[in-house]
Automatic annotation (TrEMBL):
Protein name listed in UniProt: dTDP-4-amino-4,6-dideoxygalactose transaminase
Residues forming coiled coils: none
UniProt entry tagged with the keyword Hydrolase: no
Family: Belongs to the DegT/DnrJ/EryC1 family.
GO biological process, one term: polysaccharide biosynthetic process
Keyword terms of this UniProt record: Pyridoxal phosphate
Organism (species): Myxococcus fulvus
GO MF annotation list: pyridoxal phosphate binding; transaminase activity
Short name of one Pfam family: DegT_DnrJ_EryC1
SUPFAM superfamilies, sorted: PLP-dependent transferases (SSF53383)
Length: 392
């Protein structure tokens, strides 16, 4: 794999790419949720599972206690399904304030909602105990934490339901999952497959990213040519491409299921190897970046499969621009509150939204690539500090 193109520019996508052999690889037995779960339904989006959970568990017309640190699309799905969100405090290290959760439980509360951020486990056992004390449902949102465990306990298995997103961690065109835990069985309809043209479009995009990742400048040129032709074809044929990674919930897509191709690719993945490579890459960045930016987490708990390296910066827009200019597809992580949440009531979360940048550490990135990534990130952070010093 070539990390650096002949022109000297990196290509580091934010998500893993699809290698051609994955389209024909044999399936492996699923060793982690949701693939190992006996009661699971797959969807196009994880947000569809949030919507169905509200309806399935009768949470509509009730209140759900949710973290003040949220994406927003999960809140939109919950509201659309008829529930009312209330919010609890999350600290500066993504730590749930359990005392605040307990204080905010009222007779109207029907469920507790716990988000596991970027693979790092939240206090699932403590939230389970609190939910049981008050007769509440516990929802575990593992959309950012596929393949992660808290020690030996897989995330998504402690709550009444676990909700997962596949395409953030695996090179698949779409996919979310709803896992129902415990002895109670629900009759869940199997959602219909999404439009094949949309799945094809996402699959080709992931293959082209892999081509650029491996092929340097030549791969980039071919990817650009194919994308130009492809966009024209899609437009001319009026093909509806159901985009993933969008910012808002859309009711018209709530019944879309996961494509068979997604399941085939997902089941062919070596999950243990993915966890190992992501942990290796995270540890490398932690060692190389801790002296230029105090890490959000100074360690990687056993079982954690990091979705990305959370980089703490002061001038987020400046750092993002520098990284993207060098070919690193860094992401502005969760910068906005949902309108239902009072931003002024949660200053620690407001600061998180101003300061966290996603640095890729996924399984496609070799140690050589990670060395280049670390070097570029160090330069960007140092340049940011120099700019701030001159301005001060």
């Amino acid at each position: 794999m070539e990390a650096m193109t002949p022109s000297g520019r990196l290509f580091v996508p934010s998500l893993p790419t699809l290698w051609p052999h994955m389209l024909v690889s044999k399936p492996r037995p699923g060793s982690l949720p949701p693939f190992s779960s006996p009661n699971v339904r797959y969807f196009y989006f994880a947000r569809n599972a949030v919507w169905l959970t509200v309806k399935m568990l009768g949470l509509d017309n009730g209140e759900v206690l949710m973290p003040s640190y949220h994406h927003g699309v999960e809140v939109e799905a919950l509201v659309d399904a008829g529930a009312t969100p209330r919010f609890y405090r999350v600290g500066s290290r993504w730590d749930v304030d359990l005392e605040d959760v307990a204080r905010r439980i009222t007779p109207k509360t029907k469920a507790l909602y716990l988000t596991h951020y970027a693979g790092f486990p939240g206090p699932a056992a403590e939230m389970r105990k609190l939910a049981d004390q008050h007769g509440l449902v516990l929802i575990e949102d593992c959309a950012l934490s596929l393949l992660s465990s808290d020690g030996a306990v897989p995330l998504g298995t402690t709550g009444d339901v676990g909700i997962f997103c596949l395409y953030k961690t695996l090179p698949v065109p779409n996919g979310g999952a709803l896992v129902v835990n415990g002895p109670r069985s629900y009759s869940l309809p199997e959602p219909p497959a999404p439009p094949s043209a949309s799945t094809f479009s996402h699959t080709v995009s992931a293959l082209l990213q892999n081509l650029e990742l491996r092929g340097g400048a030549v791969g980039r040129g071919l990817r650009g040519l194919v994308r130009t032709v492809g966009h024209g074809t899609v437009k001319a044929a009026s093909i509806e491409r159901v985009a993933t990674g969008t910012q808002h919930f859309d009711r018209k897509h709530v019944d879309l299921g996961m494509s068979p191709l997604t399941k085939r690719i997902a089941l062919a993945q070596d999950l243990e190897s993915i966890v190992e490579k992501r942990r290796r890459n995270y540890f490398y960045l932690l060692g190389r970046l801790r002296d230029v930016s105090t890490p959000l987490f100074n360690q990687l708990p056993a079982g954690t499969c990091p979705l990305f390296y959370p980089m703490v910066v002061q001038e987020k827009a400046e750092v993002l621009a520098r990284l993207r200019a060098k070919g690193i597809d860094a992401i502005d992580f969760w910068k906005r509150f949902h309108p239902a949440c009072d931003a002024g009531a949660f200053p620690e979360v407001a600061q998180l939204r101003r300061s966290i940048v996603e640095i890729p550490c996924h399984q496609d990135l070799s140690p050589e690539v990670m060395a280049d990534v670390a070097s570029v990130v160090r330069d960007a952070v140092r340049a940011e500090k120099q700019t701030k010093k001159r301005a001060g």
